Model the fold of this input.
Amino acid sequence: MDGVTFMYIRHSNIYLVAATRGNPNAAMVLEYLLQKVRIMKSYLGEDFNDESVQGSFTLIYELLDETMDYGYPQNCSIDVLRLYINLGSVIQEGTSKEGAALTSQITGAIDWRREGIRYRKNEVYIDLHETVSLLTSATGAILRTEVFGKVMMKAFLTGMPECKFGLNDKLIMEKEGTGSTAVTKSGKKITAVEIDDCTFHRCVRLGKFDSERTITFIPPDGEFELMRYRVTQAQQPFRLIPTVKEEGKTKLLINLKLHADFADDRKATSMVIKFPVPTSTASARINVTRGRARYEPGERALVWRISSMPGKSEATFSADVDLVPSTREKQWTRPPISVDFQIPMVAVSGVQVRFLKVYEKSSYQTSRWVRYMSKAGEYQQRI
Done:
């Protein structure tokens, strides 16, 4: 409209609108509006409406003044805004020390962590969660594989520590001169993995990562998501070998061999394998060497459930499926077999934590704990 572009979001009966005559980043504008709603919820309550907005004009004017300057988003951290905008439902009594630290928090941009945090025991918990998506052909050839991972960290650290975090990323290890393999202090051998792309929490110093390939950061207090990554070359945790034989129009013979390809000291849990069958299926007689299985009409599949399966083990599944004769001969499209699972303490991509170093002026000792978890995304085998 007259060269002006409008972008908006809605909350209850209120529209938050941004207007521009230029060509800004639309995602940034919408993210700012969403952050604005989050801030207003913290001051006016979760269910704020037009009446609460009209009655809090001074507060909203102050929030707009602090969160945006000359059309550019600035400080949208609720914890920092609470220190000096003492209106609304988050009124807090600030001390002189908090007021003195205010300028450094705004200009220094470390608004995700306050000073003066103290713990009797300094601990860091690291969780690597991976979701593996894989598609294999009827002959067993891998057509597509992707592993999406995220590193969750829970930090209980005193003061303002600086952390240096290392994975077995191929680029980092080559830059350090360790080559494609490295040995940890415990003597464990780690092989380098090629990470295709990654994104970081805003606490990570991207300048150091770009120049030195090191992940350096001052962590927020408590739990946060440090980074996400994607790997396209990963091991196949399960191999499936299916065979389907049609005996006339009223019977189907199905066999499936399942092989676990991960280490034998680990176990997969909560496994569910769904083998699709024709819509004309009447009943099925099933035999399995592990777990239990049955025909579930609602799923249009033979569902095989295994509570626990060790690595390097095998299980077999066989079924005689009776079909109802149909006057309309409609070809069975043979949808793929789907597998759902969880494997604690296994990273399918091969990504591992090499080290976490904590630097703080008091040089205290830090306890570190690392856990891994892999689970299925779209894990499918064509028939």
